[in-house]
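Morning, I've got a small favour to ask if you have a moment. Here's the protein in full, and shout if anything looks odd to you:
***
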Amino acid sequence: MPDVQEAIQAIVSTINTSDGSRLVSPERPVVCISRDCGTGGDEVARLLAERLGVDVYDRIIVERISQRLDAEPETMRALDAGASHLRDLWLYSLVTGQNLNADHYKRHLINVIVSIGRSGGVILGRGAHLILANSGALRVRITGSHDICARRIAETEGIDIEAARKRVEEVNHHRGKFVWDHFQERSNDPRTFDLIINTDHISDLQKVVDMLIDAMKMIRPPVPQPV
Protein backbone atom coordinates (compact mmCIF):
# COMPACT_ATOMS: atom_id res chain seq x y z
CA MET A 1 0.00 0.00 0.00
CA PRO A 2 1.46 3.40 -0.98
CA ASP A 3 2.28 5.83 1.82
CA VAL A 4 -0.84 7.91 2.40
CA GLN A 5 0.97 11.07 3.43
CA GLU A 6 3.15 10.88 0.32
CA ALA A 7 0.04 10.56 -1.82
CA ILE A 8 -1.59 13.50 -0.11
CA GLN A 9 1.49 15.68 -0.48
CA ALA A 10 1.79 14.71 -4.14
CA ILE A 11 -1.67 16.16 -4.74
CA VAL A 12 -1.01 19.20 -2.58
CA SER A 13 2.27 19.93 -4.35
CA THR A 14 0.54 20.23 -7.72
CA ILE A 15 -1.32 23.36 -6.61
CA ASN A 16 0.76 26.37 -7.56
CA THR A 17 0.84 29.79 -5.94
CA SER A 18 0.72 32.96 -7.98
CA ASP A 19 4.50 33.40 -7.87
CA GLY A 20 5.14 29.94 -9.30
CA SER A 21 6.07 28.25 -6.02
CA ARG A 22 4.19 25.16 -4.90
CA LEU A 23 2.32 25.63 -1.70
CA VAL A 24 -1.11 25.50 -0.13
CA SER A 25 -1.17 29.09 1.06
CA PRO A 26 -4.52 30.03 2.61
CA GLU A 27 -5.93 33.45 1.73
CA ARG A 28 -7.80 33.51 5.05
CA PRO A 29 -7.37 31.59 8.33
CA VAL A 30 -7.76 27.82 8.17
CA VAL A 31 -8.50 25.69 11.22
CA CYS A 32 -9.02 21.92 11.14
CA ILE A 33 -11.04 20.66 14.10
CA SER A 34 -11.24 16.99 15.02
CA ARG A 35 -13.65 16.45 17.88
CA ASP A 36 -15.17 13.75 20.04
CA CYS A 37 -18.93 13.61 20.33
CA GLY A 38 -20.24 15.65 23.26
CA THR A 39 -17.18 17.89 23.64
CA GLY A 40 -18.79 21.01 22.18
CA GLY A 41 -16.53 20.85 19.14
CA ASP A 42 -19.27 21.81 16.68
CA GLU A 43 -20.19 24.86 18.74
CA VAL A 44 -16.53 25.84 19.04
CA ALA A 45 -16.24 25.63 15.25
CA ARG A 46 -19.28 27.87 14.80
CA LEU A 47 -18.07 30.46 17.31
CA LEU A 48 -14.55 30.45 15.90
CA ALA A 49 -15.80 30.90 12.33
CA GLU A 50 -17.87 33.89 13.45
CA ARG A 51 -14.82 35.45 15.10
CA LEU A 52 -12.64 34.85 12.04
CA GLY A 53 -15.25 35.85 9.48
CA VAL A 54 -15.05 32.53 7.61
CA ASP A 55 -17.38 29.61 6.92
CA VAL A 56 -17.69 26.28 8.71
CA TYR A 57 -17.24 23.28 6.41
CA ASP A 58 -18.93 20.09 7.54
CA ARG A 59 -21.65 18.43 5.45
CA ILE A 60 -20.96 20.75 2.53
CA ILE A 61 -17.78 18.71 2.02
CA VAL A 62 -19.95 15.65 1.34
CA GLU A 63 -22.09 17.64 -1.10
CA ARG A 64 -19.03 18.79 -3.03
CA ILE A 65 -17.66 15.25 -3.23
CA SER A 66 -21.01 13.93 -4.44
CA GLN A 67 -21.02 16.59 -7.17
CA ARG A 68 -17.51 15.63 -8.27
CA LEU A 69 -18.38 11.92 -8.31
CA ASP A 70 -21.83 12.50 -9.79
CA ALA A 71 -23.18 10.37 -6.96
CA GLU A 72 -26.44 10.51 -5.06
CA PRO A 73 -26.11 12.74 -1.95
CA GLU A 74 -27.86 10.08 0.16
CA THR A 75 -25.23 7.53 -0.82
CA MET A 76 -22.39 9.90 0.01
CA ARG A 77 -23.93 10.74 3.38
CA ALA A 78 -24.08 7.02 4.17
CA LEU A 79 -20.40 6.65 3.31
CA ASP A 80 -19.55 9.76 5.30
CA ALA A 81 -21.33 8.30 8.31
CA GLY A 82 -18.86 5.46 8.49
CA ALA A 83 -19.46 2.91 5.71
CA SER A 84 -16.13 3.74 4.11
CA HIS A 85 -14.48 0.34 3.82
CA LEU A 86 -13.64 -0.85 0.31
CA ARG A 87 -16.27 -3.59 0.32
CA ASP A 88 -18.91 -1.05 1.42
CA LEU A 89 -18.00 1.14 -1.54
CA TRP A 90 -18.24 -1.90 -3.80
CA LEU A 91 -21.65 -2.76 -2.37
CA TYR A 92 -22.96 0.77 -2.94
CA SER A 93 -21.63 0.65 -6.50
CA LEU A 94 -23.41 -2.65 -7.07
CA VAL A 95 -26.73 -1.43 -5.67
CA THR A 96 -26.74 2.05 -7.22
CA GLY A 97 -24.85 1.42 -10.44
CA GLN A 98 -22.54 4.30 -9.59
CA ASN A 99 -18.77 3.99 -9.87
CA LEU A 100 -17.79 4.57 -6.25
CA ASN A 101 -14.17 3.59 -5.93
CA ALA A 102 -12.22 4.03 -2.69
CA ASP A 103 -9.30 5.70 -4.46
CA HIS A 104 -11.62 8.01 -6.39
CA TYR A 105 -13.43 8.97 -3.21
CA LYS A 106 -10.18 9.68 -1.37
CA ARG A 107 -8.79 11.73 -4.24
CA HIS A 108 -11.90 13.90 -4.41
CA LEU A 109 -11.97 14.23 -0.63
CA ILE A 110 -8.39 15.49 -0.67
CA ASN A 111 -9.09 17.86 -3.55
CA VAL A 112 -12.12 19.34 -1.80
CA ILE A 113 -10.24 19.83 1.48
CA VAL A 114 -7.25 21.38 -0.31
CA SER A 115 -9.58 23.73 -2.16
CA ILE A 116 -11.15 24.84 1.11
CA GLY A 117 -7.67 25.21 2.58
CA ARG A 118 -6.81 27.65 -0.18
CA SER A 119 -9.77 29.94 0.52
CA GLY A 120 -9.94 29.67 4.31
CA GLY A 121 -12.45 28.34 6.79
CA VAL A 122 -13.04 26.08 9.76
CA ILE A 123 -13.08 22.45 8.63
CA LEU A 124 -14.72 19.79 10.80
CA GLY A 125 -13.26 16.29 10.75
CA ARG A 126 -12.80 14.09 7.67
CA GLY A 127 -9.03 13.89 8.08
CA ALA A 128 -8.51 17.56 7.20
CA HIS A 129 -5.78 17.83 9.85
CA LEU A 130 -3.82 15.18 7.92
CA ILE A 131 -4.51 16.53 4.46
CA LEU A 132 -3.47 20.06 5.44
CA ALA A 133 -0.64 18.99 7.75
CA ASN A 134 1.97 21.17 6.00
CA SER A 135 -0.26 24.02 4.89
CA GLY A 136 -0.03 26.41 7.82
CA ALA A 137 -3.52 25.47 9.07
CA LEU A 138 -4.07 25.19 12.81
CA ARG A 139 -4.89 21.55 13.60
CA VAL A 140 -6.97 21.10 16.74
CA ARG A 141 -8.26 18.07 18.61
CA ILE A 142 -11.16 18.67 21.04
CA THR A 143 -11.67 15.79 23.43
CA GLY A 144 -13.24 14.89 26.77
CA SER A 145 -14.02 12.02 29.10
CA HIS A 146 -16.69 9.56 28.02
CA ASP A 147 -19.00 10.14 31.00
CA ILE A 148 -18.99 13.93 30.79
CA CYS A 149 -19.53 13.86 27.04
CA ALA A 150 -22.44 11.46 27.50
CA ARG A 151 -24.01 13.72 30.15
CA ARG A 152 -23.82 16.67 27.78
CA ILE A 153 -25.47 14.69 24.99
CA ALA A 154 -28.20 13.50 27.37
CA GLU A 155 -28.93 17.08 28.43
CA THR A 156 -28.83 18.70 24.99
CA GLU A 157 -30.77 15.96 23.16
CA GLY A 158 -33.16 15.03 25.98
CA ILE A 159 -32.26 11.34 26.05
CA ASP A 160 -31.37 9.03 28.92
CA ILE A 161 -27.76 8.60 29.93
CA GLU A 162 -27.40 5.07 28.57
CA ALA A 163 -28.65 6.13 25.16
CA ALA A 164 -26.26 9.07 25.30
CA ARG A 165 -23.31 6.81 26.13
CA LYS A 166 -24.18 4.58 23.21
CA ARG A 167 -24.44 7.58 20.88
CA VAL A 168 -21.02 8.91 21.98
CA GLU A 169 -19.45 5.48 21.41
CA GLU A 170 -21.01 5.07 17.97
CA VAL A 171 -20.16 8.55 16.71
CA ASN A 172 -16.57 8.37 17.94
CA HIS A 173 -16.19 4.90 16.43
CA HIS A 174 -17.45 6.04 13.02
CA ARG A 175 -15.23 9.12 13.00
CA GLY A 176 -12.19 7.11 13.99
CA LYS A 177 -12.98 4.43 11.41
CA PHE A 178 -13.32 7.03 8.66
CA VAL A 179 -9.85 8.44 9.37
CA TRP A 180 -8.29 4.99 9.65
CA ASP A 181 -9.92 3.62 6.49
CA HIS A 182 -8.83 6.57 4.38
CA PHE A 183 -5.51 7.60 5.94
CA GLN A 184 -4.37 4.71 8.12
CA GLU A 185 -3.97 7.09 11.04
CA ARG A 186 -5.57 7.13 14.47
CA SER A 187 -7.96 10.05 14.78
CA ASN A 188 -6.68 10.83 18.29
CA ASP A 189 -2.94 10.58 17.59
CA PRO A 190 -1.52 13.65 19.41
CA ARG A 191 1.39 13.89 16.97
CA THR A 192 -0.97 14.96 14.19
CA PHE A 193 -2.32 18.03 16.01
CA ASP A 194 -0.94 21.41 17.00
CA LEU A 195 -3.24 21.74 20.00
CA ILE A 196 -5.39 19.34 22.04
CA ILE A 197 -8.09 20.73 24.34
CA ASN A 198 -10.05 18.75 26.91
CA THR A 199 -13.36 20.53 27.54
CA ASP A 200 -14.40 18.50 30.59
CA HIS A 201 -13.98 21.48 32.93
CA ILE A 202 -14.62 24.30 30.46
CA SER A 203 -18.16 25.65 30.53
CA ASP A 204 -17.56 28.82 28.49
CA LEU A 205 -16.67 27.73 24.96
CA GLN A 206 -15.75 31.30 24.08
CA LYS A 207 -12.66 30.72 26.20
CA VAL A 208 -11.74 27.82 23.93
CA VAL A 209 -12.13 30.13 20.95
CA ASP A 210 -9.81 32.62 22.67
CA MET A 211 -7.20 29.88 23.03
CA LEU A 212 -7.49 28.98 19.37
CA ILE A 213 -7.14 32.59 18.28
CA ASP A 214 -3.96 32.88 20.36
CA ALA A 215 -2.66 29.56 19.00
CA MET A 216 -3.16 30.71 15.42
CA LYS A 217 -0.76 33.58 16.02
CA MET A 218 1.98 31.09 16.86
CA ILE A 219 1.63 28.92 13.75
CA ARG A 220 4.40 29.73 11.31
CA PRO A 221 3.35 30.01 7.66
CA PRO A 222 4.84 27.35 5.40
CA VAL A 223 7.92 28.27 3.39
CA PRO A 224 7.25 28.31 -0.37
CA GLN A 225 9.22 25.73 -2.34
CA PRO A 226 10.44 26.88 -5.78
CA VAL A 227 9.33 24.85 -8.78
